[in-house]
Amino acid sequence: DRNMTQAEPEIVAPEISLSQRTSRGFAWMLAQTLGSKVVGIAGQVFLARLLVPRDFGLVALAYSAAAPGWMLRQTGVPQILVQKGDRFKRWANAAFWMDLSLGLATAVLLLISGPLAAVVFKAPQLVGLLQLISTTALLNGLMTVPQARLTRDMRFRELALVGLGYNVLAMAISVAAASLGLGAYSLVIPLPICLSLRALAVWRLAPVRIRPNPQLHRWRAMAPDSGRLMVAAAFGAALWVSCTLALGLFYSPPLVGFFSFAGSLSAQVSTLLSANLAAVLFPVLSTLRGDPPRQVAAFFRSARALALAGVPLCLAEAVLARPLLLAVFGAKWLPAAPLLTLLALSAAIGLVGGPAGNLMQAQGRFHLSMKWSVASAVLVVVLAFPAARWGGPAWVAATWLICTAALTPALLRSAARPGGGAMPDVARIYLPPLLLSALALAPAALGELFFPWLWAHPWADLGLAAITAPPLYAALLRRFRRADLDELVSHLRRPWVSVESAPPPAG
Asked: How far apart are CA 218 and CA 155, in angstroms?
């Protein structure tokens, strides 16, 4: 008994500490994203009214044309450094020179691809757009190592403040440039300015000693994991890029702009919740790589809370796509409504896919992560180009939804396998929020069918949803999923409860 009593604090106390770090880190990253989203949504409203669909389409095509060259930039160096843990300093110098060199090579490739893209898509503006985008490859290479150090040390407060400053300044510059009539350039002009300032900030917060010797022998040691992560990131980027490229080959920039705009809106919830959780979970789960069952259990707890909070927001965006676009962004964006509905449904299903990929990387299963990225990209590419050729943007959006629904649950099960995860765990993530969100949004959805006045007054339609859906969803959770609701509340409360105030372990 005495041995058991002495052993229990060693097991329980670290779990409380890691849970606390996860919640506090997520709270800081969420606060940063909330602040950024408030500014971003306001800025996007201005940009949607100052710019035209063609401008958004040109920028989407520019990023799509940049994707092949950008493959070299996805080195996976941040993930490798974070997973090195205490050996960070030993590898930081080599990682800096490796990432900077590949960033320079990427910038050169993007400059070369500009004239070719202008010919293929019959859009001369792509040359200048790609010149500005090319600067991001080099600037990102400059700040990879200090930013990885901040992540490894779980200094999420500093990361959040730097990210907020970057987003606010970038949006302010974009709106100012759009008001001056700079068109599509308004969306990329902030990149070199804001990334330069961000690089200065992270170097000041987390200085790393860099030597002239690039330590090429350590590049070879990092090459296998870096190569796998590079392939995984490249094919992951190809998922969305293939849709844009397919549409760009067969349709005009304005139609591509509608698709890109709907995709940007549908990704808001994922950026707000999923991306921030992934950023926090990776370093936390990396500390548990020696205990796979506990690692997977921690992931599923966070994934259930993420789905509980994020799925209703995605479904609301899908149900209210028409009144949202009409009321907030103007009638010229109304053709994007069916695209937004399909892509928001995809976002609801794919919400936990990103964190699942981080779980694989935290486990050190880079090869499996690479195989999943390749298989997913191949499936989307095979289906997206025929959908674009014979169906148009709506068929491409439907293809994206089908692929997401097929791939994400399988990805979750594959990531959970070393820790004993099974399909019932995956079902528990998705089914409760999907069913209860649909019930909560039913009054708003049926209102448009039975009350034509709401159809003609989009603000009233949005107001009805805002009044009825949240309390109804909360009531349904209390009635049918009380344990999940308590878990979500505990995630929200935990960042503000000190570790020292936690109750002592039993015994």
From this structure: 27
